[in-house]
């Protein structure tokens, strides 16, 4: 269960209806999970800022780099132009290049894009090679199309699904997690692909003794959505605040950790929020990032793959410690 469902709220701000990134109007999420034999445990997750043709109706966006040990395809053009023109896809490290190629195929196939000669796919990754035969590169065209075309609003499946199928966080099974916060008249939603290390901390309480040989290495991809009217510069500032939420969970930020945040806006950015008007969104994204990471852990099922088993976080023991 989510900790919030067990009476343990994270932060003080109110959540959106589903406590998910899809609480931002228009945003949809889809997964394709690939489990084959004893060695393939991977997948892809698609985040759609809106259901239309993103190349024809781009959204303002920005990328923040916490630590650049990763392959975030398309990030430089996003920061140069302040626009996102494709769905955002998350997957495993060696799948990223096949996924980017499939995203280009998908965008070129859309009505209205017949004369398009340049597409900037935005694809992030973390390394699921401990539980998955990552060299098999098991995600491609079919899985990408399935994830995008199955994307929906409302509740979001979390845990060991899609891009989170083979990931590990704090020594436990990680995965996909999401959360949202109300920021005055606006909503901020976050989705994460957790695959990193450190000393798990929940509401300031350390979980020492529950962790078994947690690896401090790994990565996280964070996607932020808001319906607030933000310029790309202020979306960059919003993305940067996710690192404060990441830190609250006890992340180590190691040399080998690729820590990235992608932020986009769905609302009309004219007139845009003032700099001062961003402060409530900053507070919201910190809390939503923290809870999304915790949801990715508490919602994840144990996985055996590639000759290894990674257990699920023992939520009962966590609740006992928090209540004490």
CATH class: Alpha Beta
Looking across the biggest beta sheet, what order are the strands in? 4-3-14-13-10-9
CATH architecture level-2 label: 4-Layer Sandwich
Mean pLDDT: 96
Rg computed from alpha carbons, rounded to a whole number of angstroms: 18 Å
Low-pLDDT sequence parts:
none
User: How many E strands?
Assistant: 16
Considering the protein shown, what is the CATH homologous superfamily? Answer: L-amino peptidase D-ALA esterase/amidase
**Beta-strand percent range:** 25-35%
- Structural class comes to alpha+beta
Q: Quick one: overall form?
A: globular
For the biggest sheet, the summary is: 6 strands, mixed
- Give me the number of helical elements: 6
Helicity level: 10-25%
* SSE order, one letter for each helix or strand: EEEHEEHEHEEEEEEEHEHEEH
Specify the oligomeric state.
single chain
Straight-line distance between termini: 19 Å
CATH fold-level name:
L-amino peptidase D-ALA esterase/amidase
Count of spatially separate domains: 1
What can you see in these coordinates?
- The chain is an alpha+beta fold.
- The chain has one domain: L-amino peptidase D-ALA esterase/amidase, CATH 3.60.70.
- The protein is built from 6 helices and 16 strands.
- It has helices at 75-81, 96-108, 141-149, 232-248, 279-298, 315-323, and strands at 28-36, 40-48, 59-68, 83-84, 88-92, 122-126, 168-169, 172-173, 176-183, 186-195, 201-202, 205-206, 219-226, 258-265, 303-305, 308-310.
- It has a 6-stranded mixed β-sheet.
- It starts with 27 loop residues before the first strand and ends with a helix.
